[in-house]
Amino acid sequence: MSDAEIKEVSSDGHKEETEKNGDENSADSKEAAQTEEKEKDSSQPEMNANTNAEEESLDVKKADKKTSKIKSKPGKKESKVLKEDINEPVGEPLEEANTEVLPENVFPLFMTSKTQEIYNCKCDEDVTEENPFKFIPKSDILEDMRLRAAVCDFHPFKQQILDYPGEDVLIVYDYEFKHGQNFIVALTEEAKELLLKAPEGEEGEAEEEGEEEEEDDTVYMYIPPEPKDWVSLGSEKEIEESIVKETRRKLKVSVKRIRREFGAPVQFSDRNVGDVKDGAVDCTSYDDHNFDIKRIELDKAVQAISEQVTEGTQTDWKYPRNANTQTYPREYTEDEQAALVATKECSDFVHEVAFDFHQALQQNEIMNVFYVDWVHLGDGDDAFGSKADNHLKEYQSFTDLQFSKDKMITCIQWHPTIKGVVATSVAEKLSFDQRIDNAAKVIMTPSLILIWSFADPIHPQLILEAPDDIFSFAFNPTDPNHIVGGCLNGQIVMWDIAAHADRLKQQRGSNRNKKRTVLPGFEDPNALKTPIVRYCAVSSIEHSHKAPVTDIQWLPDHMQINKMGVPQENASLQCTQLLSCATDHCVMLWDTKASKIHATAMYDEKKKSQQPSGVPDTFKHLDLTWKPLLRVTLSKSEPGGDHAPTKFSIQERQGDRSALTSGTENREADVTQTMQGGFHKPSSGKERTLQGVKTYVYVGTEDGEIVYADWMPQKDQDTGKIQTPKPAYYHVTHDGPVVSMQRSPFFKDVLLSVGGWTLALWKEGVSSGPILESSACNVKLSCAAWSPTRPGVFFVAKVDGSVDVWDLLDKTHEPALTQSVSPTAIMQIYPFQVTQKQQLIAVGDIAGTLHILEIPWSLRQATPNETTSVANYIEREVKRRAFVVERWNFREKEKREIEAEVKKKAGGMAAAMAPPTEEEKELRLRQEYEAYLNEEHTFLRELGIVQDEEIPLPAA
Amino acid sequence: MAAEVEETLKRIQGHRGVTGTIVVNSEGIPIKTTLDNSTTVQYASLIHSLTAKARSTVRDIDPSNDLKFLRIRSRKNEIMCAPDKEFLLIVIQQDEQS
């Protein structure tokens, strides 16, 4: 229909157009027609109701549709269709937004293509975008309105046109449908004028639009594409390749059917299901296990970006090295080296420089030219002899009016761990006879050990009560709360002060201040009183010493001695054994550990006997049953009594573990055992024997002898009894009882013995005698002690109340320093290194006062290489000793030879006149008488008593 | 020749306290030593550069002068070096006192 109409339209107006349509676009028209037909079918009922005009508008719709179809097609066809399209009036004009505000009396106007033909203002032909103005004579419009009446496009403006004053009406082609229609019309002269300024006005509008659009930032301009010559870029090949070509012959399939069967009717008949087997097959649904596939959920992530990898690299840090050592050193091979060495140049060079080297090397050997004298200048100045502060300074003195006054101090011991705590034992100043005379009084006064602290110089911190006067005591080096003492009556006493250890540790002054904090009225009446600790064990009196115990020492913790005197390793590293000596000719070994029998016995006993209150039962198992483990009897080599020891010394010392170093097997096992076993554990008996330990003991006796004896008992040749062997040697050196037997803390084979008025130095292994023996002092010596820090210094106490300081490196014939310390006789001295910078010496006198003196720097600070110098000195003395012995032997031999010779001579004469006859005897007597007379005469004559002439010789 | 060198070096080595003798060539490469390799290399390289520096110092002060002998006294030992055009002899002597 549309097609027809178009043709109709064409036939009405422009043949050209129709031709074009017919020529160029027949295919398109057909296509459009087809679509339209379809459209028409669907909208048939609507169509019928439409008026002519509506038909037209429908027409436009169709054309519109057509356009939308054709739009995609490029080139001329499109423009053609567009033209058509524009010619047609738009069906829904109101839908278009009237964006532009029109001037007054200017209205949008739609002109159908027919109207356009009438007025010769066909779009894009008579009017274009560039020249949109068209003047239509008013008469033409009126004519048209008259002819077409309401169909006329100007009909809505009929009255206005009639009122229009001018002859021509201006219409403007609205190319872009800005105002909703394809034209606008000016219906007054003013409006016409406005529009005629148009170019500007419209431009202005356009500009406005442009400006508006500039806000959108883009102005689209349609540039129709221009056809260009086709240039091959290789795509034709691809096309060619993608074309499917026949490569084989086509298959031929023929399907045949009998002719008569074509279209023949089919006949069906009924049948019973039961008639035939399998007449009906029941197709029940079932689960087919073949398709029983488990569905497993799978979480899978897919990411459409490349994976990220983080990597780092860092160069290794190398130790900064000298530039010379960064490179690999160049080296010659041995052959090359040999070749170079063999060259004459090398030889010459070495010879040339050798002299310088010899000179330099020898110079170094002769003396150290770079020795700085200034550095060492000060050393000598502070030593002895200078006026520097080098005397002992009184630091403190302790005396207790109640307990220690007018008693003599018999032993001094510093507390091994708590600094500033010193213990002294005091005893009555009575001789044996006096003691017996005053027995009643003596028994009534308690025998005590006083423990002093620097915190309180008036009151002792602790008082240990003993059964009898104590002459020696010792702190256990490994457990200082255990104290062992030797009594006057020969018993060994044990104390345990563990309960009072805190009291000793208290700092200066805190003791009393603490008491004040107690509520008034509730003060402990004993708070200010010194606690008295009772002994907790005492040895069996029948097995103890029979004389006052003069020396007692703990065995060092690394060793123990069994019943056979064999030194063994003490794995527990606890001091449990001790040695004591008394003047009853023996040294005894005691063990504080309970033996098995005792342990059980003790358990029974414990129930029966009750310890006095406040006494710890640490050593309960020993009380009154304690027996020595080993008894070393010091019998003299020749008949005539035994040695009565007063002091002794063994080589092993506390803290020196060198004896343990030979082999350490099964040590750890023992340690764990003893850890569990504790104090009461009996010795397991499988302890390692210490081979390196010397079993000899140096003993100083009451008679001033120094005895060197083996404590290990041996089987006696004659009796078969196992007993202590005879001493290896002994020397009667001292002119009084030995009061000190001290081993040097620096040389464990060097001993100092003091007795009577002399002192002597001994070196273990030198059996011929002391390496140094002092001349007799004018006062009796009472004690001696080595300096703990200077190898060459020792202190000697004297009964005149002075202390001698000997320095072996200074002079060996007399003390380097003598200082009066006390107005009374000094009984004991004991130096002790309290701190690095303080060394104190405790001096106990016979009046019961304990003086603490500070040792000056020069006496405690060892000079450089002092140990070496002292060692050299000792070595020298040993050599001298050896020389002396050699001379002795030589002299002895010489003497013997002379004697022998004399004897021989005398023997010869005697042989000649062997039996002296009576005559001979008479003759000899006569001769002797004559000689006597002659002598008498000479004597008298010398005195002038007789004259030669007057007194004639008596007749022969 | 080599035997004579050996003999001379042995005599130097015979002095008390001498712990090492090294002969180094002009490039600082050891050609004869009585020490272990690493010590030798270290001594050779370091002493060589030091000696070169010392020598240049002496010659800079007086171009007609030359370094004859260099003794380095340290806390532990003394290092003696004698440079020459071709060779350098290094002797290390331990300090007796230390």
Automatic annotation (TrEMBL), chain A:
GO terms for cellular component: inner dynein arm. It is found in: Cytoplasm. Residues 1-90, 198-217, 635-687 are annotated as: Disordered. Its main location: cytoplasm. Residues 1-43, 58-67, 75-86 have a biased composition (Basic and acidic residues). The keyword Repeat applies. Keywords: Cytoplasm, Repeat, WD repeat. One of its GO terms (molecular function) is dynein heavy chain binding. SMART domains: WD40. Gene3D superfamilies: YVTN repeat-like/Quinoprotein amine dehydrogenase (2.130.10.10). Signal peptide: none annotated. GO terms for biological process: cilium movement involved in cell motility; inner dynein arm assembly. Pfam families: WD40. Residues 201-217 have a biased composition (Acidic residues). The keyword NAD does not apply. It comes from the Eukaryota. InterPro entries: Dynein_IC (IPR050687), WD40/YVTN_repeat-like_dom_sf (IPR015943), WD40_repeat_dom_sf (IPR036322), WD40_rpt (IPR001680). This is WD repeat-containing protein 63. The lineage of its organism: Eukaryota, Metazoa, Spiralia, Lophotrochozoa, Mollusca.
From TrEMBL, chain B:
The lineage of its organism: Eukaryota, Metazoa, Spiralia, Lophotrochozoa, Mollusca. GO terms for biological process: microtubule-based movement. Gene3D superfamilies: Dynein light chain 2a, cytoplasmic. This is Dynein light chain roadblock. GO terms for cellular component: cytoplasm; cytoplasmic dynein complex; microtubule. GO terms for molecular function: dynein intermediate chain binding. It is found in: Cytoplasm, Cytoskeleton. Belongs to the GAMAD family. SMART domains: Robl_LC7. It holds the Pfam family Robl_LC7. SUPFAM superfamilies: Roadblock/LC7 domain (SSF103196). InterPro entries: DYNLRB1/2, Roadblock/LAMTOR2_dom. Keywords: Cytoplasm, Cytoskeleton, Dynein, Microtubule, Motor protein, Transport. Acts as one of several non-catalytic accessory components of the cytoplasmic dynein 1 complex that are thought to be involved in linking dynein to cargos and to adapter proteins that regulate dynein function. Cytoplasmic dynein 1 acts as a motor for the intracellular retrograde motility of vesicles and organelles along microtubules. Residues 5-93 form the Roadblock/LAMTOR2 domain.
